[in-house]
Design brief:
Length: about 210
């Protein structure tokens, strides 16, 4: 994420992406205050040559998320989008969430590991559509990720910082949080399980590799 968007500017793309994610995810505070019985779980992943779980999927904690975003190392190496999607999906199930989303931000194509189109189709097949894939193509051709639409996901093109924030807002507030409210979901009765994480809407956010 060290190169600049095609539209110009001097701020590295990885910093633009981090700020946009922090701003959009901060909206979770107001959602949780209106829905105290409905936790929103968030996880954070990075994908370069390897996939790294930066923040385990757990109830939203703005301070922890902010610290995690601020502490991300500068990106380098390859772009393992498919591997990140596979890991985040497995973690969503381990967390025991009801509605499951992968919110992916990338500024490049997959260059290492499993191909994301294959992973996306496997996720759709094995989850029977329960995991929704939402992807923001930041300063990269969204047509490269047309496979997301084929598995009933959504791809948004973002050529600059303004478009990135708008796209993330559309997907996170306009889709993930809005769909949770429309469904009228509430926290189910406590159940004994291997997971100690409460259930709820859970976007696993592999934020990027913007370089």
């Amino acid at each position: 994420m060290e190169d600049e968007p095609e539209t110009g500017g001097t701020t590295p793309k990885y910093l633009i992406a981090r700020r946009a994610l922090a701003e959009v995810l901060a909206q979770t505070d107001s959602f949780v205050s209106r829905q105290p019985g409905f936790p929103v779980n968030v996880g954070l992943y990075t994908f370069t040559s390897n996939v790294r779980q930066v923040l385990p999927i757990a109830p939203f904690d703005r301070r922890q998320l902010t610290l995690a975003l601020e502490g991300l190392p500068d990106p380098s190496g390859n772009t393992a989008i498919g591997e990140a999607m596979a890991l985040a999906t497995a973690d969503l199930y381990r967390a025991g969430t009801i509605r499951k989303y992968l919110l992916v931000v990338t500024d490049g194509e997959n260059t290492t590991g499993r191909e994301p189109d294959e992973v996306a189709r496997e996720i759709a097949r094995r989850s029977e559509g329960a995991v929704r894939i939402l992807l923001v193509a930041f300063d990269v051709d969204a047509d490269k990720f047309a496979f997301v639409n084929e598995v009933r996901g959504t791809v948004i093109q973002a050529r600059n910082a303004v478009a990135l924030r708008a796209g993330l807002d559309t997907l996170y507030r306009g889709r993930i949080l809005a769909e949770a409210m429309d469904a009228g979901e509430t926290l189910p009765l406590p159940m004994l399980s291997d997971s100690a994480t409460p259930r709820g809407a859970a976007p696993a956010v592999p934020p990027s590799r913007p370089r």
